Amino acid sequence: MRINKFLAESGVCSRRAADKMIEDGLVKVNGKVCVIGQEIDEFSDSVVVNGKKLNLVNSYEYYIMNKPKGYVCTVKDDKGRKTVMDLLPPNITRVFPVGRLDYDSEGLLILTNDGELTFKLTHPKNEVPKTYLVKTERPVSDTDINALRQGVFIDGVKTKKCSVQFVEKTKTGSKLRITITEGKNRQIRKMIETLGNSVDFLKRIKIGDLTLSGLNRGETRKLTAREVEYLRML
Description:
Blueprint: H1 3-9, H2 15-23, E1 27-29, E2 32-33, E3 47-49, E4 52-53, E5 62-67, E6 96-97, E7 106-112, H3 115-122, E8 130-136, H4 142-150, E9 153-154, E10 157-158, E11 163-169, E12 174-180, H5 187-193, E13 199-207, E14 210-211, E15 220-222, H6 225-233
Parallel strand pairs: 7-13
Antiparallel strand pairs: 1-2, 1-3, 3-4, 5-7, 5-15, 6-7, 8-12, 8-13, 9-10, 11-12, 13-14
């Protein structure tokens, strides 16, 4: 088993976060600092992270949160900011956020210790649709909408085609519903910035067909078995 998958399956973090921990030299296998892509024997090798020996998780937990603004989607923050873990009930401990919503964004966030599901939902190759409600600082034109739908260039790379619909047009801004199948850092905000505009409000309202129905800001609940199975099938 690859070391990053082992860390994910141990409930430490996602595979991507695991690679960063490995790069930073925080992971040892049989007493030696390991490297990205290293294969291990999950049954006999000793894996230690920050001085703590890891074991594979025997059972998984799955939660959905309505993240408010003002929280970062990490287990710990080196800048001392509040994290989504601060919103969890005290009996929920060994889970981590799936993907990210930035500090100023809100909405649907999944937390779990299931590394495989995390990988499925976050890896670009799986093209899992995520839908956002967006309010722009200034009005958006039909030409702007068509540009977003066809893909815009962010850092020299063109985004994939996506779904964009007007929700409301006003003199001071526009409300849009945008569905993307990628997960680039701050992608929605950067897409709007290519139009010479900016985002006033950003909320993730769906992953696939999973919604925030019944959850107020800051609230968390367990996902049902049916919801978990649905996410696995996306």
